C-alpha cells in the first residue's frame, strides 16, 4: 500500500463480483461498507457472464443484469460497473478478471469483496493460489451464513479481512421468488431498479408498482 514510482498513494480498488440477478441493497451496502471501512477509493461492480458455481442456472440475460447494476450505482460516484466478464464471455473465473485488471492497472491494489456464503468456497475457486497472490479479500457477513475463518487453509485465511456490515437477509433468489409470485420487492432494490423491473415486467413481475 506504499507509494508507487510516482510517489503517490496507490489507488485501492474494491471488486464487487456477482451475478446480480438482480442487484439489491445487500450488494450495495456490502460495497459501501468495504469502501468506508477498508479505505477503498472505488468499488468496481463486475457482473459475471456465466458463474462457475451456478452452471446450469438459466438466469437473466447479461445486458439486463448490467443495466440494473448501472441504475443501482448511479448515485454513488465511487461505484462503477465494468462489463469485462460479459465481454470476455464463457464461464467467468475471478482469476481471469483479476489478472486482466492487474495487467491493465498495475498501479492499483485490488480487494475482492465477498459475502460469507462464498468465503468457505474459496479453496475451490479456480486457481485460488494465484488469485490470493493478486488480491486480498474483504468479507462481509450474511445472516445465517456464519463465518469460520479457522477452517480455511492459512494461505487463504491470512488474505481475508472481515468488515462489519449490518446483517441484511436479502438475496436475489428471494427477490426473484417474490416477483414471480406477485409480491412486492420494493425497498429490497433501489427505486430506480424496482421501477425498471416492473415497467419491463422482468422476473415475471406483473404490475405491482
Ligand atoms: P443469488 O441468490 O442469486 O445467489 P445473491 O443475493 O447471493 O444472489 P450474488 O450475485 O450471488 O447475490 O452475490 C454477489 C456477491 O454479493 C457475493 O459475494 C455475495 O456473497 C454478496 N452478497 C449478496 N447478498 C448479500 C447480502 N445480503 N449481504 C452481504 N453480501 C451479500
Ligand atoms: Mg449468491
UniProtKB/TrEMBL annotation:
InterPro entries: Cyt_trans-like, NadD/NMNAT, Rossmann-like_a/b/a_fold
Any one GO biological process: NAD+ biosynthetic process
Entry's Gene Ontology molecular function annotations: ATP binding; nicotinate-nucleotide adenylyltransferase activity
Key words, A-Z: ATP-binding, NAD, Nucleotide-binding, Nucleotidyltransferase, Pyridine nucleotide biosynthesis, Transferase
Organism listed in the record: Paenibacillus curdlanolyticus YK9
Coiled coil: none
HAMAP family per UniProt: NaMN_adenylyltr (MF_00244)
Keyword Protein biosynthesis in annotation: no
Residues in Cytidyltransferase-like domain copies: 15-178
Family designation: Belongs to the NadD family.
Protein name: Probable nicotinate-nucleotide adenylyltransferase
Function statement: Catalyzes the reversible adenylation of nicotinate mononucleotide (NaMN) to nicotinic acid adenine dinucleotide (NaAD).
Amino acid at each position: 500500500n506504499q507509494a508507487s514510482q510516482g510517489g503517490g498513494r496507490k489507488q485501492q480498488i474494491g471488486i464487487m463480483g456477482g451475478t446480480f440477478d438482480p442487484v439489491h441493497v445487500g450488494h450495495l451496502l456490502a460495497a459501501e461498507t468495504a469502501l468506508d471501512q477498508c479505505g477503498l477509493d472505488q468499488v468496481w461492480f463486475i457482473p459475471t457472464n456465466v458463474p462457475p458455481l451456478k452452471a446450469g442456472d438459466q438466469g437473466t440475460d447479461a445486458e439486463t443484469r448490467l443495466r440494473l447494476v448501472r441504475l443501482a450505482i448511479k448515485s454513488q460516484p465511487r461505484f462503477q460497473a465494468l462489463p469485462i466478464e460479459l465481454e470476455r464471455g464463457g464461464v467467468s473465473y475471478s482469476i481471469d478478471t483479476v489478472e486482466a485488471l492487474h495487467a491493465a492497472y498495475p498501479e492499483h491494489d485490488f480487494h475482492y469483496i465477498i459475502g460469507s456464503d462464498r468465503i468457505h468456497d474459496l479453496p475451490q475457486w479456480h486457481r485460488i493460489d494465484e488469485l490470493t497472490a493478486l488480491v486480498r479479500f474483504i468479507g462481509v457477513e450474511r445472516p445465517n451464513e456464519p463465518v469460520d475463518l479457522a477452517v480455511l487453509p492459512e494461505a487463504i485465511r491470512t488474505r481475508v479481512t472481515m468488515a462489519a456490515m449490518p446483517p441484511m437477509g436479502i438475496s436475489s433468489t428471494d427477490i426473484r421468488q417474490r416477483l414471480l409470485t406477485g409480491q412486492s420487492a420494493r425497498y429490497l432494490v433501489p427505486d430506480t431498479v424496482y421501477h425498471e423491473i416492473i415497467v419491463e415486467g422482468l422476473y415475471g413481475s406483473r404490475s405491482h408498482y
